[in-house]
Specification:
Beta-Lactamase, Heat Shock Protein 90, 18 helices, 54% helix, five-stranded mixed β-sheet, alpha/beta, single chain, 4 domains
Length: 610
């Protein structure tokens, strides 16, 4: 076995050696190879033929004749040798050309099927070659490009940055890679990653379409900017909610307290006007914040089956005094069935209907008519319509109806308003999965409609706890200590005035968070009322330390803040807040919450005392 293996290895080395010795000959030019073979043949012929004749023929005349024949034979043999050599070289050349052609065909086929655009531009800027991708990218046919210059196909390209780069690559014979946004003759645009390589014919340009990548990058950047703007808007909402609601808390709170006492008629009218104006300002603040929440995608909607007839009647009764003041007649054409429900947020639906009806009253003619109808559309959705007999809306202004702060006709009308109602209504209806729209005929009136999903079954009703009828008795009987943590003196004075209606409840106030922690630990109050924006530490941190300390974690904490964002409320509930009241506070609700928590705190403390 070893001997055979060594023999095979020796044979292989011998073949390799012969191949190397012959390689130099085939590396020569064809004409040199023919000359060498012919010279070798001629030399060997002359040498051996002369010696052979001299050895075999001694007769001079015969030798001369044979040499003549030998010359003719040499010419014939030489012609044959040259013919064979030329045919061999031609065969080799033909085979080489065939291989080159096949290789070029494969190369072109590869280029033609590449997703990247491939093109060769001559020194005169004419297209010498384009593949299918270039044809698809450019929108031209192949025959419309080949033989034509870039300037003919793309007028003005010679003035672009791209052409300046191509010109530099053409002259300096250097490679360049770049990203370029290209504008096509039809006006469309596309981004391309270009690789420009000098070749013998001119320039070879490889173009990769990166339009989608650029679009994705732009969308990602826009999304990041939008998210950043959304975060900034949320922070702004939190700050503005606090800054706007805090002064309203004192205004509305003291107004409510004054209205609960006996006063002169002129003072009562003034107090009611203060309260009415404050509520109007609060409604405006809420509308602005709601618009911002909708735009930020943070509006909290709680859809449930809402009884249609009940919701409409509640809103109509609210709007009826306004309508009667202008001698407007209200007409309802709605199903009286108790089984008609729509899927909506009950409070938000009433808010939308109130906006539409208020507009129908505000922009109607004196003594006009308002009609509310409900019907099914072809999609099986419930369509609510509010029709008025007002002056109508010009067609050119219809597209501006639902734009925030755009009050149509404000330059000629003296009606109050901010232009937020319809924009807010659209946001709320769409958030509830519905649609809203309007139609109007100038001089006849307008119709505003909303469409909501109809539900056939009512979900289990949520039974809201009604205000205890004996709240007054509970207020008098309540006993306990309440710690109020607030840095605004007006709010402290307001709560002190409210707490006077709870004679058995002692109020302590702390204007700093650290002081509140100390007082809570020392006095063990039955309830803590906590504001968030304190001068030393944030209210959320105070809540955290109260719940972390075993000595104070059992004390219920009610957060009272002007920051009414749902995210902030959820955050504080997760930290352990028992309740969350937003400023401006409703005095009756505030009193009930305090009494409820003090009673609950006493009930929990009794077993511990035992």
């Amino acid at each position: 076995m070893n001997a055979n293996h060594e023999s095979d290895q020796t044979a292989k080395r011998s073949k390799v050696g012969r191949a190397k010795r012959h390689a130099w000959f085939f590396s020569l030019r064809p004409d040199l190879r023919i000359a060498l073979v012919y010279a070798a043949f001629g030399g060997l012929w002359i040498l051996f033929s002369d010696r052979l004749l001299a050895a075999l023929v001694t007769d001079l005349a015969a030798l001369t004749l044979l040499q003549t024949y030998k010359g003719w034979a040499f010419v014939a043999a030489s012609a044959l040798v040259i013919f064979l050599l030329l045919r061999r070289e031609l065969n080799l050349l033909t085979a080489t050309e065939r291989r080159l052609n096949k290789s070029e065909e494969r190369f072109r086929a590869t280029l033609d099927t590449m997703l990247e655009g491939c093109q060769i531009i001559g020194f005169d800027w004419r297209y010498l070659y384009v593949n299918d991708a270039v044809v698809a990218q450019s929108g031209y046919r192949r025959d419309e490009l080949l033989g034509h210059t870039m300037m003919e196909k793309y007028p003005g390209i010679e003035h672009t940055e791209l052409f300046a780069v191509l010109e530099r690559c053409m002259k300096a014979r250097v490679f360049h890679r770049m990203e370029n946004e290209f504008t096509f003759p039809d006006g469309s645009k596309g981004w391309y990653d270009l690789s420009v390589q000098p070749v013998d014919e001119g320039l070879f340009i490889l173009s990769h379409d990166i339009t989608e990548r650029k679009r994705a990058e732009a969308e990602r950047l826009a999304r990041e900017i939008a998210e950043q703007a959304s975060r900034a808007k949320s922070e702004f909402l939190s700050r503005m909610s606090h800054e706007l609601r805090t002064p309203l808390n004192a205004i509305l709170g003291f107004a409510q307290l004054m209205m609960m006492d006996e006063m002169k008629p002129e003072h009562e009218r003034g107090t009611k006007q203060i309260y009415k104006s404050g509520r109007h300002l609060l409604d405006l603040v809420n509308e602005v914040l709601d618009i911002a929440r909708i735009e930020a995608g943070r509006m909290h909607i709680s859809p449930e089956p809402v009884h249609l007839e009940e919701a409409i009647h509640e809103v109509v009764e609210l709007i009826r005094p306004m309508a009667e003041a202008r001698r407007l007649s209200l007409h309802l054409k709605i199903p009286s069935s108790k089984d008609v429900f729509v899927l909506a947020d009950r409070q938000r639906l009433k808010q939308v209907l109130l906006n539409l009806l208020a507009n129908a009253v505000k922009y109607n003619r004196e003594g006009g008519r308002i009609t509310v109808t409900a019907s099914l559309n072809i999609e099986g959705r419930l369509r609510l319509q509010v029709r008025d007999s007002g002056v109508g809306i010009p067609p050119e202004k219809m597209t501006r109806l639902f734009i925030p702060f755009d009050r149509l006709g404000s330059e000629t009308e003296d009606q109050e308003g901010t232009g937020l109602g319809l924009a807010l209504s659209r946001g709320l209806v769409e958030a509830m999965g519905g649609r809203i729209g309007a139609e109007s005929i100038l001089g006849v009136g307008s119709v505003f409609w909303i469409e909501l999903k109809l539900v056939t079954e009512r979900l289990k009703e949520v039974i809201l706890a009604e205000v205890d009828e004996n709240l007054t008795e509970r207020m008098r009987a309540g006993r306990g200590v309440v710690l109020y943590v607030e840095d605004n003196l007006a709010n402290i004075n307001l709560v002190e005035a409210i707490m006077e209606r709870l004679p058995g409840v002692k109020l302590m106030a702390a204007m700093q968070g650290r002081l509140a922690l100390s007082l809570a630990n020392e006095h063990q109050p039955d309830l803590i009322l906590l504001d968030l924006h304190l001068p030393d530490i944030h209210g959320a941190e105070v809540l955290h330390w109260l719940k972390a300390d075993p000595a104070t974690r059992h004390i219920p904490v009610i957060v009272i803040s002007a920051d009414a964002t749902s995210s902030k409320i959820e955050e504080l509930r997760n930290l352990g807040a028992h309740n969350y009241l937003t400023k401006p506070i409703d005095v009756k609700e505030f009193l009930k919450v305090i009494v409820d928590h003090i009673d609950a705190s006493k009930a929990e403390a009794s077993p511990r005392d035992d």
